[in-house]
Amino acid sequence: MADSWNRSLEDIYFLLEEEGAKPSENILFVVRLFIGVILVCVILICGGGNLFFILNLVMYKNMQNVTNILIANLAVSDLLVAVICCPFEIDYYVVREQSWAFGHIICSSIIYLRMLSLYVSTNALLAIAIDRYLVIMHPLKPRMKLQKACGVLFLIWSSATVIAAPTAYFATETVFDTPRESGGKVFCGQIWPADRALYYKSYSLFLLAIEFVIPVFIMSICYIRICHQLWFKILPGEQTQQLRSRLQARRKSVLVLVAVLLAYVLCWSPFYSYAIVRDFFPGLLLRERYAIALYYIVECIAISNSIINTLCFVTGKNQAKCCFKILINPWEKRTLSMERQTTFQD
Known about the structure:
By secondary structure, this protein is mainly alpha-helical. It is 73% helix and 3% strand. A two-stranded antiparallel sheet has the order 1-2.
C-alpha cells in the first residue's frame, strides 16, 4: 500500500479501521442496499429500454435520422454497462461487500468499460447539442448526412477508447490485509505507482477538463442560444399552423435535451468533485468517518444518470410500447410504421 499513489476508494474504509474510526455497520448496510437497488434499476430500465430503442431504430427507417443515430450511441454504451458491468458490480459492492472474485482481466475490463461508457455518453451529448444548434440556428445550411454522422460516431468511440486507456492499464485487483483481519478481501480498482503521481494528477485534471468542464460549457452555450432563438426571437411573416406546430415540437425536444444536460451535471458533479478531493486532498477523506458511505452515495448518483437518459430519450412517444407490440405480433409492423414519428423533429 505504501508504494501506490491512489489506492482504491474502498481502501479508505480499512485505513479508518486502523485508526479506530470504523463507520456504523447499519449505515454501510443501508448504503449498500441503496446502491444495489440502483444497479438493479440500471439493469432493468437501461437494459430493457435501450434494447427497445435500438430495435426500433433498426426496424423503422423513418427513425434513422442523425439525431436518433447519435442518441443510439448513448443507448449502446448504457446497454453495455447494464448487461456487462452491473451484474459484476452488484456482486462486488453488495454481495461480497467490496471483495472481487473474478480475476485481474475481468476487473480491468469492467473498470475500462464503465469509464469508456461515460466518455462515449459525454461526447455523444456534446455531438447532439452541436447538431441541434446547427439545425435550429442555421436552418438554411444542409444537415449532416448519415455518412458524416457515422464518421462522428467513429470519432466519439475512438477518442473515448484512447482517453480511457490508462484506466484499463492501471486497473488491477489487490489484496489488502488489515490488522483487524479483513478476511483478505480482494479490491478491484486503479492503482498508480507512487513514482507516477504527477502523471496521475495530470490525467485526473485532464479528464475533468476534457470530459466534463469543456463539454458542459459548450453544451450550455448551445442550448442558451437555442432557447433564445425558439422562445424570444420573433419570426418574420405570417405564422401558419404548420409552422407553429413545428416550433412547439422543437421546443419540446430542446426542453428534453436541456433536462438531460442538467441531469448530467447534477449526477456527475459529485463524482468529479469527490475525485478531485481524493486525488489532491486525500487527508480530508482519511479524517472523515463516513468516507466510504459518501463514496457509495456519490457512485449511486453518478450511476443513476444512465437511468435518467433512458427515461428521457428512449421512452419518448411510446417507443418501447410500439416495439413491444411488434415483438409480440410482427404483422403489426407495417401498420405501426405508418403511424410512427421520430423522437426529435427537425
